[in-house]
């Protein structure tokens, strides 16, 4: 009994650490004075490399077979993840981090709605109420958009959460999908897609390259590693719910480092929350 309790505490600590790692994405994005495509190229390259190393360390060279044996559902998961990735970074640059964080928080509800439409999964009354409250929060934020770039950032964040939620449901539908390999593939795909559009690849300084490497290794690779390790000791719903700690931490790091304070509409739109388990994204 004590061993099980100890494993549970270890799992909780690891998943919390994963959420902290994931939440640093806005911090790194704000820290880099580069165009979105350049950030996406280098982040995808370093992130894909980090995840591939994790795959080899955890499964040996046999883990590389997951790339060769990737089926249609795996490629679709990777493609949706890539779409989410290439819209997430620009959204952080175009609108406030608090706006993006609140939209990200609606992910479990969007995934629940897609699962209801696609898989006919039953929606509980409390989930429906939480979805309505979350939707109202997004409407408040959208209504406060101050300009063209702000609106575009919010639109990109909404599109991002839609495709990531669809990816979450797809993973639930095809549980045999090799998620670690798909995550590595999505990062490498994002890097390849960004290459023709990136304007500052050759102009990246050594300091910026180190920051980009930390972005890929720490936020992407370390976050995934900690979550995979921690989720082995916890029920999937509990692990995912703890992982949503990422949402309030996203604006916190940016406020701490850059004094970016959430506006009144973001605070009002972000107040309603519900303890509804989400899905791994």
Q: Residue share in helices? A: over 70%
Query: Averaging pLDDT over every residue, what do you get?
Result: 83
- Termini separation comes to 31 Å
Number of helices: 14
* Main sheet properties: none
Specify the structural class: mainly alpha
What are the segments in which pLDDT stays under 50 over at least 5 consecutive residues? Answer: 269-281
Domain module tally: 1
Task: Provide the succession of SSEs.
Answer: HHHHHHHHHHHHHH
Radius of gyration: 18 Å
Instruction: Characterize the overall form.
Output: globular
Kindly estimate the percentage of residues that lie in beta strands according to DSSP.
under 5%
Instruction: Count every beta strand, where a strand is a DSSP E run of 2 or more residues.
Output: 0
The oligomeric state of the chains shown is single chain
Structure description:
The protein is built from 14 helices and no strands. It is mostly helical. It has one domain. α6 (97-104) runs antiparallel to α13. It is globular and about 45 Å long. The chain starts with a helix and ends in an 11-residue tail after the last helix. The relative contact order is 0.24.
In short:
The chain is built from 14 helices and no strands. The protein is an all-alpha fold and 281 residues long.
Q: What brief labels describe this structure?
A:
281 residues, 14 helices, single chain, mainly alpha, disordered C terminus
């Amino acid at each position: 009994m004590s061993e099980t309790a100890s494993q549970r505490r270890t799992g909780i600590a690891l998943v919390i650490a994963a959420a902290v790692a994931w939440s640093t994405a806005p911090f790194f994005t704000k820290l880099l004075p580069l165009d979105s495509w350049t950030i996406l190229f280098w982040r995808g390259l370093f992130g894909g490399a980090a995840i591939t190393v994790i795959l080899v360390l955890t499964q040996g060279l046999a883990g590389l077979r997951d790339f060769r044996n990737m089926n249609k559902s795996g490629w679709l998961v990777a493609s949706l993840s890539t779409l989410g990735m290439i819209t997430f970074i620009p959204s952080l640059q175009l609108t406030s981090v608090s706006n993006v964080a609140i939209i990200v928080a609606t992910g479990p509800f969007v995934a629940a709605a897609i699962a209801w439409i696609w898989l006919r999964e039953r929606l509980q009354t409390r989930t429906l109420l939480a979805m309505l409250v979350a939707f109202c929060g997004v409407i408040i934020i959208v209504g406060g958009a101050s300009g063209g770039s702000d609106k575009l950032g919010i639109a990109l964040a909404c599109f991002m959460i839609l495709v990531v939620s669809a990816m979450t449901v797809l993973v639930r539908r095809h549980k045999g999908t090799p998620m670690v390999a798909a995550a590595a593939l999505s990062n490498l795909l994002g890097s390849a897609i960004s290459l023709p559009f990136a304007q500052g690849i050759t102009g990246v300084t050594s300091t910026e390259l180190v920051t980009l490497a930390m972005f890929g290794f720490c936020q992407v690779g370390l976050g995934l590693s900690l979550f995979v390790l921690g989720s082995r000791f916890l029920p999937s719903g509990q692990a995912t719910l703890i992982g949503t700690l990422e949402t309030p931490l996203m604006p916190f790091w940016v406020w701490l480092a850059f004094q970016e304070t959430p506006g009144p509409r973001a605070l009002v739109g972000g107040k309603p929350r519900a303890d509804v388990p989400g899905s791994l994204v």
